[in-house]
Amino acid sequence: MKKQWWHRTVGYQIYPKSFQDTNGDGIGDLQGVIRRLDKIAALGANVIWLCPVFPSPMVDNGYDVSDYMDIDPCFGSMEDMKELIAKAKEKGIRILMDLVANHSSDQHEWFQKALRDPYGKYGNYYVFREGRAGGPPNNWRSIFGGSAWEKVPGRENLYYLHLFTKQQPDLNWENPELREEICRIIREWMELGLGGFRLDAISHLKKNYDYEDLPADGPDGLCLAFDHINNVKGLSDFLLELKEKAFAPSDALTIGEYDNMKPEDVEAVIGENGSFSSVFDFSHTHHNVYYPEWNGDTLGMFNDYRDRLFEAQKVVDGRGLLCNFLENHDKNRCIDRFLAKEDRNPHSIRMLPVTNFFLPGIVFLYQGQEIGMRDFPKKSMDEYVDAPTHAEYEEFLKKGLTPEEALFRINSNSREHSRTPMQWDGSENAGFTTGTPWFAVNPNYTWLNYEAQEKDPDSLLHFYRKLVSVRRRPDLEETFIYGRLIPRLQDRSGILAYERRDERNRILVVTSALSEEMRLPLAEADATEALMNESELLLDNYETAPLFEKGELTLRPWECLVIRLGGKERGTD
Ligand code: GLC
Ligand code: CA
User: Fold this and answer.
1) Which of 145, 291, 423, 449 ranks highest by number of CB atoms within 10 Å?
2) Catalytic residue among 170, 200, 327, 392
3) Is 144 in the pocket of ligand 1 (CB under 6 A)?
4) 60 lines ligand 1 (CB under 6 A)
5) Rounded distance between C-alpha atoms, residue 301 and residue 320, angstroms
6) Is 569 a catalytic residue?
7) 549 pairs with which residues across the strands?
8) What is the pTM of this model?
9) What are phi and psi of 281, to 5 degrees?
10) What is the pLDDT of residues 90-146, one digit of tens each?
11) How does residue 570 score in pLDDT terms, banded at 50, 70 and 90?
12) Distance from the CA of 373 to the center of ligand 2, in angstroms?
């Protein structure tokens, strides 16, 4: 693999609205990010992904952009953005913005012009179609619920396409003029010194417009036509054009939100000449210990999670780098998602990030993950503000769940859990704002906050700092990035283990989701007594030394270990 600057990425994702408010309006802002840059640097991150900060009516918290070339006043100004880029650079941190180019806001000037003249220049920036039989052009379902078509106000029989909310009309990527415009926008941003972009909903750009009705997947007659709207043949032409014209000239890091990468497409998507630098590995985003199929069974879910992680790595097979993460703004918190209530303890919450942090790829942490921020279940749906969360609730009711059952599902799953304000300290509103926060702070902030953990050397925050420092240690970093991956102990239930190996190092990573001790013969991990005796313990979640003797390692409940194997055998690849 040809070396690139971004291979060393340890990223930190910021949801600006909930990160740090500096002017008392209850909404996080760019000055807030600047204020907290030291904390991000202390964690050891070298890239920040900033969720959208462009002007927006905020129907989807910025994922509905009304002007691609400016900053929303609630976040600050262009000057603030430039200041952030410069100050981050001083700390060795590059900024990624979030390019939302599958759709714009319905308030974007382009769409407003398109509505006035659907058959004119800007009409061709969007997807307008005549309805059929008194209804929409076909029965596609929007990803956020309901029909994917909305009637154009004041027109007899005309509709526009929206794969997300109706305030997010899809852009027409078949139109070369639109593509050119997006490339120009990217180039202008890159000129300000950005590190690159995270690319929102990017696998949806191309649609299969055959307009046939598809077999309904629900009582409303609609169909979520994924194979017609995701990863459709021809998509890569658009993506390669973007890369060539917009990203390549400035050597940008691009990470695609690209779901369901097919094995045969790996090369074309993230290979050396692929469309993106990397794509997020979503293998684990379908796991939640409180989904009906797991019903609180942490162990069963963990085994499946492990198999899928390894499967994803096997498919990629060193041809590119996946982006490994556990949390983002679209998922609830990992402690609540992966661990049943009785399984949450100081050991298990430290073990979780170790499961995928040392796999081949680049890594991303999400704001608040480093202090173990938690879900904030609500007593009633009125306390949720996210439209898709409400749509999901309605879907549950339609499927026959009682309101209590539906609320339980939302409480154990809603993406809004990860959007509660960042808990900086124990003062009112967790130090997030002096005003009224736009979304309620989790009341646990009085004990669960950044300041308290910073003072406590045994805290989760310090564990995460250690985690990053191990990964970035100069003599180990290349092994973690380019080294071979050898899954270990795969048939042991509750154990996720692997070795990373190159000519310099052999590093063994072992994590356990077992609530009891487990004795492992070292030979099974291809690690002999000699290797262990001369090994270096890089990371552990117990205070006392790991228990290995006489060719056996006794893993303690929820233990995780990262060990650099010693001895002469190191170096044989
Ligand atoms: C992506 C974003 C999500 C957003 C959606 C529509 O999935 O991550 O937050 O709602 O796209 O833009
Ligand atoms: Ca503010």
Assistant:
1) 423
2) 200
3) no
4) yes
5) 27
6) no
7) 552
8) 0.97
9) -85, 105
10) 999 999 999 999 999 999 999 999 999 999 999 999 999 999 989 999 999 999 989
11) low
12) 21
